[in-house]
Design goal:
- The chain is an all-alpha fold.
- It has a single domain, classed as A middle domain of Talin 1 (Up-down Bundle).
- The protein is built from six helices and no strands.
- It is globular.
Length: 151
């Protein structure tokens, strides 16, 4: 199952990385988060292993644009001397460790099918955090100066 997730991420990552989109990077990021969040909803309706594999493939395909745009934003907004730290914050902020813990707890307490709700809640939280933060993705956190549109 995780291999299918990774393959979906690989294919779309290669495709997305090759595109030259004219949309601002901050908008691409918000869109990618919304799409990734939307791909968690079908997990509630999975009834068998092939359906789960397909749902995870689609979910994996949605994650690459999120990572690519997030790292692009870090590269543009974080001073070069702090780039490694900025990337570390992105990787830490993904929350896979908390998600694994929460999913395990929910599964133990309420049953296996209920664990997917953790992904849905996390996706909703990501949207609620990313959308209001759009304006801060074009302003330098150090100087407060407006940055050029992120393309």
């Amino acid at each position: 199952m995780l291999g299918g997730y990774a393959v979906g991420s690989l294919f779309v990552g290669l495709l997305f990385g090759a595109l030259k989109l004219s949309t601002q990077l901050s908008r691409q990021f918000a869109t990618a988060i919304a799409i990734a969040a939307a791909t968690t909803v079908p997990l509630l309706f999975v009834g068998n292993i092939p359906m789960l594999a397909f749902a995870l493939f689609v979910s994996g395909a949605a994650i690459s644009p999120t990572f690519i745009t997030a790292f692009g934003l870090v590269e543009r907004l974080v001073p070069a001397a702090k780039l490694t730290e900025g990337i570390t914050w992105v990787m830490t902020g993904i929350g896979m460790d908390i998600g694994s813990f929460a999913s395990g707890w929910v599964i133990d307490a309420f049953g296996p099918g209920q664990g997917f709700w953790v992904s849905i809640v996390a996706g909703g939280d990501a949207i609620l955090i990313a959308l209001p933060g759009q304006c801060s993705l074009t302003v330098s956190p150090l100087t407060g100066e407006q940055r050029p549109a992120l393309a």
